[in-house]
Amino acid sequence: MSQTSPSSTHNLRADGARLWATIHETARFGGTPKGGINRLTLSAEDGQVRDWFREACEAAGLTVGVDALGTQYALRPGQDMSLPPVAFGSHLDTQPTGGKFDGVLGVLAGLEVMRTLNDAGIGTRAPLLLVNWTNEEGSRFAPAMMASAAYAGDFTTDEILAKRDAAGTTVAEALDAIGYRGGEAVGERAIGAFVELHIEQGPILEAEGKTIGVVEGGQGIAWFDGRIEGFESHAGTTPMPRRRDALLGLSEFALAVERIALAHGPSAVATIGEATILAPSRNVVPGQVAFTLDMRDPRSATLDAMEAELREAAAEIGGRRRMTLALSRIWRKEPVPFDAGVVAAVEAAAEGLGLSRRRIVSGAGHDACNLAGRVPTAMIFVPCKDGVSHNESESATQGDCAAGADVLLQTVLRLAG
Ligand code: GLV
Ligand code: MN
Ligand code: MN
Questions:
Q1: Dihedral sign, CA of 291, 294, 300, 306?
Q2: 20 to 30 A Cα–Cα from 115, which one of 13, 19, 58, 356?
Q3: pTM of structure
Q4: What range(s) does the Peptidase M20 dimerisation domain occupy (predicted)?
Q5: How confident is the model over 355-366, as pLDDT tens digits?
Q6: Could you give the CA distance from residue 146 to residue 366 in angstroms, rounded to a whole number?
Q7: Is residue 413 within a helix (H) or strand (E), and if so which, with residue range?
Q8: Do residues 83 and 61 make contact, with C-beta atoms less than 8 angstroms apart?
Protein backbone atom coordinates (compact mmCIF):
# COMPACT_ATOMS: atom_id res chain seq x y z
CA MET A 1 0.00 0.00 0.00
CA SER A 2 1.20 3.49 -0.79
CA GLN A 3 2.51 6.07 1.66
CA THR A 4 0.49 9.26 1.83
CA SER A 5 1.37 12.54 3.48
CA PRO A 6 -0.46 13.49 6.72
CA SER A 7 -2.05 16.54 5.11
CA SER A 8 -3.77 14.44 2.46
CA THR A 9 -5.07 11.96 5.07
CA HIS A 10 -6.50 14.87 7.11
CA ASN A 11 -8.64 15.77 4.12
CA LEU A 12 -9.90 12.23 3.71
CA ARG A 13 -13.67 11.73 4.22
CA ALA A 14 -15.85 8.62 4.34
CA ASP A 15 -18.47 8.17 1.62
CA GLY A 16 -21.62 9.00 3.59
CA ALA A 17 -23.96 7.94 0.79
CA ARG A 18 -22.31 4.53 0.48
CA LEU A 19 -22.50 4.05 4.27
CA TRP A 20 -26.19 5.00 4.21
CA ALA A 21 -26.82 2.50 1.40
CA THR A 22 -25.13 -0.37 3.30
CA ILE A 23 -27.12 0.44 6.47
CA HIS A 24 -30.31 0.10 4.48
CA GLU A 25 -29.11 -2.91 2.49
CA THR A 26 -28.42 -4.95 5.64
CA ALA A 27 -31.66 -3.78 7.29
CA ARG A 28 -33.48 -6.38 5.18
CA PHE A 29 -32.02 -9.20 7.32
CA GLY A 30 -34.70 -9.39 10.01
CA GLY A 31 -36.46 -6.26 8.75
CA THR A 32 -39.88 -5.66 10.36
CA PRO A 33 -43.03 -4.14 8.82
CA LYS A 34 -42.60 -1.08 11.09
CA GLY A 35 -39.17 -0.36 9.58
CA GLY A 36 -37.09 -1.79 12.41
CA ILE A 37 -35.02 -4.95 12.74
CA ASN A 38 -35.65 -8.15 14.72
CA ARG A 39 -32.30 -9.92 14.45
CA LEU A 40 -31.65 -11.72 17.72
CA THR A 41 -28.14 -12.96 18.18
CA LEU A 42 -27.32 -16.29 16.47
CA SER A 43 -30.75 -16.44 14.79
CA ALA A 44 -31.06 -17.39 11.12
CA GLU A 45 -31.24 -13.66 10.30
CA ASP A 46 -28.05 -13.02 12.26
CA GLY A 47 -26.45 -15.81 10.20
CA GLN A 48 -27.56 -14.05 7.00
CA VAL A 49 -26.15 -10.66 7.96
CA ARG A 50 -22.90 -12.32 9.09
CA ASP A 51 -22.58 -14.00 5.68
CA TRP A 52 -23.23 -10.62 3.99
CA PHE A 53 -20.62 -8.98 6.22
CA ARG A 54 -17.99 -11.66 5.49
CA GLU A 55 -18.53 -11.31 1.73
CA ALA A 56 -18.40 -7.50 1.87
CA CYS A 57 -15.18 -7.62 3.90
CA GLU A 58 -13.59 -10.12 1.54
CA ALA A 59 -14.60 -7.96 -1.42
CA ALA A 60 -12.74 -5.11 0.32
CA GLY A 61 -9.62 -7.28 0.45
CA LEU A 62 -9.87 -8.05 4.19
CA THR A 63 -9.06 -11.42 5.72
CA VAL A 64 -11.95 -12.63 7.87
CA GLY A 65 -11.56 -14.91 10.89
CA VAL A 66 -14.13 -16.20 13.39
CA ASP A 67 -13.48 -17.10 17.02
CA ALA A 68 -15.03 -19.84 19.14
CA LEU A 69 -17.85 -17.49 20.22
CA GLY A 70 -18.66 -16.43 16.64
CA THR A 71 -17.07 -12.97 16.76
CA GLN A 72 -15.95 -11.95 13.25
CA TYR A 73 -12.57 -10.21 12.73
CA ALA A 74 -11.70 -8.60 9.35
CA LEU A 75 -8.02 -7.68 9.03
CA ARG A 76 -6.40 -5.11 6.74
CA PRO A 77 -2.61 -5.51 6.79
CA GLY A 78 -0.39 -2.69 7.98
CA GLN A 79 3.08 -1.67 6.89
CA ASP A 80 4.46 -2.97 10.21
CA MET A 81 2.85 -6.30 10.95
CA SER A 82 4.71 -6.54 14.25
CA LEU A 83 2.31 -3.87 15.62
CA PRO A 84 -1.01 -4.96 17.15
CA PRO A 85 -3.95 -3.82 15.00
CA VAL A 86 -6.04 -0.76 15.71
CA ALA A 87 -9.52 -2.27 16.01
CA PHE A 88 -12.99 -0.80 15.56
CA GLY A 89 -16.49 -2.19 15.19
CA SER A 90 -19.64 -2.93 17.15
CA HIS A 91 -22.43 -5.51 16.73
CA LEU A 92 -24.94 -6.63 14.09
CA ASP A 93 -27.44 -8.33 16.45
CA THR A 94 -30.52 -6.37 17.54
CA GLN A 95 -33.26 -6.30 20.14
CA PRO A 96 -36.58 -7.97 19.16
CA THR A 97 -37.92 -4.44 18.56
CA GLY A 98 -34.59 -3.07 17.38
CA GLY A 99 -33.81 -0.25 14.99
CA LYS A 100 -31.49 0.10 12.01
CA PHE A 101 -28.62 1.87 13.79
CA ASP A 102 -27.88 0.35 17.23
CA GLY A 103 -24.63 -1.55 16.63
CA VAL A 104 -25.07 -1.63 12.87
CA LEU A 105 -23.68 1.89 12.45
CA GLY A 106 -20.41 1.03 14.18
CA VAL A 107 -19.79 -2.10 12.10
CA LEU A 108 -20.79 -0.63 8.75
CA ALA A 109 -18.97 2.65 9.37
CA GLY A 110 -15.94 0.45 10.05
CA LEU A 111 -16.44 -1.21 6.68
CA GLU A 112 -16.76 2.27 5.16
CA VAL A 113 -13.42 3.25 6.76
CA MET A 114 -11.77 0.23 5.10
CA ARG A 115 -13.37 1.01 1.73
CA THR A 116 -12.40 4.69 1.92
CA LEU A 117 -8.76 3.83 2.65
CA ASN A 118 -8.75 1.32 -0.21
CA ASP A 119 -10.21 3.87 -2.67
CA ALA A 120 -7.61 6.45 -1.64
CA GLY A 121 -4.78 3.90 -1.77
CA ILE A 122 -3.76 4.72 1.79
CA GLY A 123 -1.85 2.30 3.96
CA THR A 124 -1.40 2.50 7.72
CA ARG A 125 1.59 1.55 9.80
CA ALA A 126 -0.41 -0.66 12.20
CA PRO A 127 -2.84 -3.19 10.73
CA LEU A 128 -6.57 -2.39 11.03
CA LEU A 129 -9.14 -4.83 12.40
CA LEU A 130 -12.91 -4.53 11.97
CA VAL A 131 -14.89 -6.54 14.55
CA ASN A 132 -18.52 -7.77 14.73
CA TRP A 133 -18.93 -8.92 18.35
CA THR A 134 -21.39 -11.76 19.07
CA ASN A 135 -24.41 -11.03 21.29
CA GLU A 136 -24.01 -7.45 22.35
CA GLU A 137 -27.71 -7.08 23.08
CA GLY A 138 -28.19 -9.78 25.70
CA SER A 139 -31.85 -10.16 24.78
CA ARG A 140 -31.69 -13.84 23.80
CA PHE A 141 -28.74 -14.93 25.97
CA ALA A 142 -27.69 -13.09 29.16
CA PRO A 143 -25.46 -11.33 29.91
CA ALA A 144 -25.19 -8.64 27.25
CA MET A 145 -21.81 -8.07 25.53
CA MET A 146 -20.81 -11.62 26.40
CA ALA A 147 -18.29 -12.27 23.61
CA SER A 148 -16.31 -9.09 24.27
CA ALA A 149 -16.39 -9.93 27.99
CA ALA A 150 -14.85 -13.30 27.19
CA TYR A 151 -12.29 -11.55 24.95
CA ALA A 152 -11.35 -9.35 27.93
CA GLY A 153 -11.09 -12.38 30.22
CA ASP A 154 -14.18 -11.72 32.37
CA PHE A 155 -15.67 -15.15 31.44
CA THR A 156 -14.21 -18.33 30.01
CA THR A 157 -15.32 -19.45 26.56
CA ASP A 158 -16.90 -22.57 28.09
CA GLU A 159 -18.94 -20.49 30.55
CA ILE A 160 -20.39 -18.50 27.64
CA LEU A 161 -20.95 -21.54 25.39
CA ALA A 162 -23.11 -23.07 28.15
CA LYS A 163 -25.48 -20.08 28.55
CA ARG A 164 -29.06 -20.92 27.57
CA ASP A 165 -31.87 -18.92 25.99
CA ALA A 166 -35.49 -19.13 27.18
CA ALA A 167 -36.06 -22.21 25.00
CA GLY A 168 -33.09 -24.02 26.60
CA THR A 169 -30.81 -23.73 23.55
CA THR A 170 -27.15 -23.17 24.48
CA VAL A 171 -24.89 -20.58 22.86
CA ALA A 172 -22.82 -23.53 21.54
CA GLU A 173 -25.88 -25.08 19.85
CA ALA A 174 -26.99 -21.72 18.43
CA LEU A 175 -23.49 -21.05 17.01
CA ASP A 176 -23.43 -24.50 15.39
CA ALA A 177 -26.92 -23.99 13.94
CA ILE A 178 -25.74 -21.01 11.88
CA GLY A 179 -22.21 -22.34 11.27
CA TYR A 180 -20.44 -19.64 13.27
CA ARG A 181 -18.50 -21.58 15.92
CA GLY A 182 -15.08 -20.53 14.63
CA GLY A 183 -11.68 -22.05 15.14
CA GLU A 184 -9.85 -19.13 16.77
CA ALA A 185 -9.38 -19.16 20.54
CA VAL A 186 -11.28 -16.25 22.13
CA GLY A 187 -8.91 -13.48 23.23
CA GLU A 188 -6.03 -14.88 21.18
CA ARG A 189 -5.86 -11.88 18.83
CA ALA A 190 -3.88 -8.94 20.12
CA ILE A 191 -5.55 -5.53 19.75
CA GLY A 192 -3.57 -2.30 20.17
CA ALA A 193 -6.52 0.06 20.64
CA PHE A 194 -10.31 -0.15 20.16
CA VAL A 195 -12.75 2.53 18.95
CA GLU A 196 -16.53 2.06 18.69
CA LEU A 197 -18.88 4.41 16.87
CA HIS A 198 -22.51 4.20 18.05
CA ILE A 199 -25.68 6.24 18.15
CA GLU A 200 -26.05 7.92 21.53
CA GLN A 201 -29.34 6.11 22.34
CA GLY A 202 -30.21 9.04 24.60
CA PRO A 203 -31.36 12.65 24.19
CA ILE A 204 -28.35 14.78 25.16
CA LEU A 205 -26.57 15.46 21.83
CA GLU A 206 -29.81 16.23 20.01
CA ALA A 207 -31.02 18.54 22.79
CA GLU A 208 -27.74 20.46 22.77
CA GLY A 209 -27.39 20.52 18.98
CA LYS A 210 -24.03 18.70 19.08
CA THR A 211 -22.94 16.31 16.32
CA ILE A 212 -20.32 14.25 18.18
CA GLY A 213 -20.22 12.75 21.65
CA VAL A 214 -16.66 12.13 22.84
CA VAL A 215 -17.41 9.25 25.19
CA GLU A 216 -15.40 9.20 28.42
CA GLY A 217 -16.75 5.95 29.83
CA GLY A 218 -19.74 3.73 30.47
CA GLN A 219 -21.99 3.53 33.50
CA GLY A 220 -22.35 0.50 35.77
CA ILE A 221 -24.99 -2.16 35.14
CA ALA A 222 -26.53 -4.83 37.36
CA TRP A 223 -28.92 -7.50 36.06
CA PHE A 224 -31.19 -9.64 38.23
CA ASP A 225 -33.57 -12.55 37.75
CA GLY A 226 -36.57 -12.25 40.06
CA ARG A 227 -39.13 -14.78 41.19
CA ILE A 228 -42.25 -14.33 43.29
CA GLU A 229 -43.96 -17.31 44.90
CA GLY A 230 -47.49 -16.61 46.10
CA PHE A 231 -50.30 -19.14 45.89
CA GLU A 232 -52.58 -20.19 43.00
CA SER A 233 -56.25 -20.21 43.92
CA HIS A 234 -59.72 -19.94 42.43
CA ALA A 235 -60.47 -16.52 40.89
CA GLY A 236 -64.19 -16.79 41.65
CA THR A 237 -64.13 -18.06 45.21
CA THR A 238 -61.00 -16.71 46.93
CA PRO A 239 -61.98 -13.58 48.89
CA MET A 240 -59.65 -10.64 48.22
CA PRO A 241 -58.07 -10.55 51.73
CA ARG A 242 -57.13 -14.27 51.55
CA ARG A 243 -55.27 -14.01 48.25
CA ARG A 244 -51.49 -14.36 47.80
CA ASP A 245 -51.45 -12.88 44.30
CA ALA A 246 -47.89 -12.90 42.91
CA LEU A 247 -48.79 -10.38 40.20
CA LEU A 248 -49.87 -7.87 42.82
CA GLY A 249 -46.58 -8.52 44.64
CA LEU A 250 -44.74 -7.70 41.41
CA SER A 251 -46.89 -4.60 40.86
CA GLU A 252 -45.90 -3.23 44.26
CA PHE A 253 -42.29 -4.18 43.72
CA ALA A 254 -42.25 -2.45 40.31
CA LEU A 255 -43.41 0.78 41.96
CA ALA A 256 -40.70 0.36 44.61
CA VAL A 257 -38.13 0.00 41.80
CA GLU A 258 -39.32 3.29 40.31
CA ARG A 259 -39.29 5.04 43.70
CA ILE A 260 -35.77 3.85 44.54
CA ALA A 261 -34.33 4.85 41.14
CA LEU A 262 -35.95 8.28 41.37
CA ALA A 263 -34.55 8.75 44.88
CA HIS A 264 -31.02 8.17 43.54
CA GLY A 265 -31.62 10.30 40.43
CA PRO A 266 -31.15 11.87 38.06
CA SER A 267 -28.52 9.40 36.76
CA ALA A 268 -29.96 6.22 38.30
CA VAL A 269 -32.32 4.08 36.19
CA ALA A 270 -34.01 0.75 36.83
CA THR A 271 -36.29 -1.34 34.60
CA ILE A 272 -38.38 -4.48 34.86
CA GLY A 273 -38.19 -5.48 31.18
CA GLU A 274 -39.65 -8.99 31.31
CA ALA A 275 -42.45 -10.35 33.49
CA THR A 276 -44.25 -13.67 33.13
CA ILE A 277 -47.09 -15.25 35.07
CA LEU A 278 -46.10 -18.92 35.24
CA ALA A 279 -48.97 -21.32 34.44
CA PRO A 280 -51.27 -18.40 33.61
CA SER A 281 -55.02 -18.87 33.50
CA ARG A 282 -57.88 -16.38 33.31
CA ASN A 283 -59.63 -17.81 36.35
CA VAL A 284 -56.65 -18.56 38.59
CA VAL A 285 -55.14 -15.98 40.99
CA PRO A 286 -51.49 -15.79 39.81
CA GLY A 287 -49.31 -17.85 42.13
CA GLN A 288 -45.87 -17.50 40.52
CA VAL A 289 -44.28 -14.68 38.58
CA ALA A 290 -40.81 -14.49 37.01
CA PHE A 291 -39.24 -11.18 36.03
CA THR A 292 -35.99 -9.46 35.09
CA LEU A 293 -34.52 -6.26 36.51
CA ASP A 294 -31.91 -3.99 34.86
CA MET A 295 -30.37 -1.29 37.08
CA ARG A 296 -27.74 1.30 36.09
CA ASP A 297 -25.78 4.27 37.40
CA PRO A 298 -22.34 5.77 36.69
CA ARG A 299 -21.42 5.33 40.40
CA SER A 300 -20.60 1.94 41.82
CA ALA A 301 -21.68 2.95 45.35
CA THR A 302 -25.12 3.95 44.02
CA LEU A 303 -25.57 0.51 42.49
CA ASP A 304 -24.75 -0.99 45.91
CA ALA A 305 -27.20 1.30 47.69
CA MET A 306 -30.00 0.68 45.20
CA GLU A 307 -29.53 -3.08 45.41
CA ALA A 308 -29.70 -2.98 49.22
CA GLU A 309 -32.89 -0.89 49.11
CA LEU A 310 -34.48 -3.16 46.49
CA ARG A 311 -33.77 -6.21 48.64
CA GLU A 312 -35.33 -4.47 51.66
CA ALA A 313 -38.41 -3.57 49.61
CA ALA A 314 -38.70 -7.16 48.36
CA ALA A 315 -38.56 -8.52 51.91
CA GLU A 316 -41.10 -6.01 53.19
CA ILE A 317 -43.59 -6.59 50.37
CA GLY A 318 -43.17 -10.36 50.57
CA GLY A 319 -43.68 -10.41 54.35
CA ARG A 320 -46.77 -8.25 54.21
CA ARG A 321 -48.31 -10.13 51.27
CA ARG A 322 -47.33 -13.62 52.54
CA MET A 323 -45.20 -14.49 49.52
CA THR A 324 -41.49 -14.81 48.74
CA LEU A 325 -39.81 -12.26 46.47
CA ALA A 326 -36.37 -13.62 45.46
CA LEU A 327 -33.82 -11.49 43.60
CA SER A 328 -30.76 -13.16 42.13
CA ARG A 329 -28.02 -10.95 40.67
CA ILE A 330 -26.87 -12.67 37.46
CA TRP A 331 -24.46 -9.99 36.19
CA ARG A 332 -22.74 -6.83 37.29
CA LYS A 333 -20.59 -4.59 35.14
CA GLU A 334 -18.72 -1.89 37.03
CA PRO A 335 -18.63 1.70 35.64
CA VAL A 336 -15.77 1.94 33.13
CA PRO A 337 -13.53 4.93 32.37
CA PHE A 338 -12.14 4.98 28.82
CA ASP A 339 -8.47 5.53 27.98
CA ALA A 340 -7.44 9.21 28.14
CA GLY A 341 -5.19 8.86 25.08
CA VAL A 342 -7.86 7.31 22.85
CA VAL A 343 -10.49 9.78 24.12
CA ALA A 344 -8.07 12.57 23.20
CA ALA A 345 -7.61 11.07 19.72
CA VAL A 346 -11.40 11.08 19.21
CA GLU A 347 -11.62 14.68 20.44
CA ALA A 348 -8.76 15.79 18.16
CA ALA A 349 -10.34 14.04 15.18
CA ALA A 350 -13.69 15.77 15.79
CA GLU A 351 -11.93 19.10 16.25
CA GLY A 352 -9.93 18.63 13.05
CA LEU A 353 -13.17 18.01 11.20
CA GLY A 354 -14.72 21.17 12.68
CA LEU A 355 -17.59 19.21 14.26
CA SER A 356 -19.52 20.41 17.33
CA ARG A 357 -18.97 18.06 20.22
CA ARG A 358 -19.21 17.44 24.00
CA ARG A 359 -17.83 14.90 26.46
CA ILE A 360 -20.43 12.30 27.48
CA VAL A 361 -20.85 9.10 29.56
CA SER A 362 -22.62 6.17 27.92
CA GLY A 363 -25.93 5.11 29.43
CA ALA A 364 -26.03 1.96 27.32
CA GLY A 365 -23.69 -0.97 27.64
CA HIS A 366 -21.24 -1.48 24.78
CA ASP A 367 -18.57 -3.99 23.81
CA ALA A 368 -16.14 -1.07 24.20
CA CYS A 369 -16.87 -1.13 27.96
CA ASN A 370 -15.50 -4.69 28.10
CA LEU A 371 -12.57 -4.01 25.76
CA ALA A 372 -11.56 -1.14 28.06
CA GLY A 373 -10.54 -3.73 30.66
CA ARG A 374 -7.78 -5.01 28.39
CA VAL A 375 -7.08 -2.51 25.60
CA PRO A 376 -6.91 1.34 25.39
CA THR A 377 -10.47 2.12 24.26
CA ALA A 378 -12.90 4.97 23.58
CA MET A 379 -16.20 5.59 21.78
CA ILE A 380 -17.76 8.11 19.41
CA PHE A 381 -21.48 8.96 19.66
CA VAL A 382 -23.74 10.61 17.11
CA PRO A 383 -27.29 11.82 17.87
CA CYS A 384 -30.42 9.76 17.30
CA LYS A 385 -33.91 11.16 16.82
CA ASP A 386 -35.68 12.03 20.10
CA GLY A 387 -33.03 9.99 21.92
CA VAL A 388 -35.03 6.84 21.10
CA SER A 389 -33.37 3.42 20.79
CA HIS A 390 -34.36 -0.23 21.34
CA ASN A 391 -37.42 0.71 19.26
CA GLU A 392 -38.25 0.04 15.62
CA SER A 393 -38.61 3.78 15.02
CA GLU A 394 -34.95 4.43 16.03
CA SER A 395 -33.58 6.97 13.57
CA ALA A 396 -30.42 8.94 12.79
CA THR A 397 -29.61 11.29 9.89
CA GLN A 398 -27.36 10.42 6.97
CA GLY A 399 -25.30 13.52 7.75
CA ASP A 400 -24.70 12.54 11.40
CA CYS A 401 -23.83 8.95 10.44
CA ALA A 402 -21.35 10.29 7.88
CA ALA A 403 -19.86 12.70 10.46
CA GLY A 404 -19.45 9.79 12.88
CA ALA A 405 -17.73 7.73 10.18
CA ASP A 406 -15.39 10.65 9.43
CA VAL A 407 -14.45 10.91 13.11
CA LEU A 408 -13.89 7.15 13.23
CA LEU A 409 -11.70 7.33 10.11
CA GLN A 410 -9.62 10.23 11.42
CA THR A 411 -9.30 8.66 14.89
CA VAL A 412 -8.12 5.38 13.38
CA LEU A 413 -5.60 7.21 11.19
CA ARG A 414 -4.22 9.02 14.25
CA LEU A 415 -3.92 5.77 16.22
CA ALA A 416 -2.59 3.57 13.39
CA GLY A 417 -0.10 6.05 11.92
C1 GLV B 1 -27.35 -2.95 25.39
O2 GLV B 1 -27.96 -2.52 24.44
C3 GLV B 1 -27.61 -2.46 26.72
O4 GLV B 1 -27.20 -1.33 27.04
O5 GLV B 1 -28.29 -3.16 27.47
MN1 MN C 1 -25.53 -1.30 20.72
MN1 MN D 1 -28.76 -2.18 22.07
A1: negative
A2: 356
A3: 0.93
A4: 219-318
A5: 999 999 999 999
A6: 10
A7: helix 398-416
A8: no
